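Consider what follows.

. . .
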Amino acid sequence: MTREEIIQQVNTVFVDQFEIEAERLTPEKQLFTDLGLDSLDIVDLLVELHKSFGIALRNNEEVRKVRTLGDVYDFLEKYAREHPEEIHSAGN
């Protein structure tokens, strides 16, 4: 899975689940301050990313370090590189 595919899939989650305009979704955006997510939204985000990519994120310690949209992209790109058999694209 390429970084571009990951970005597209993550951004789709933000647009569909949180009704955030696609043009606002840039890597430097802070999830809480810039995009307006709260702690309940983060739980929803983890659920939606699990559905979208097929991986469980809740108990992953690395996911706790995520602060920006770019961090989400980086985390998923690294995960896809390290566990290619586990991650899938939305179309699979």
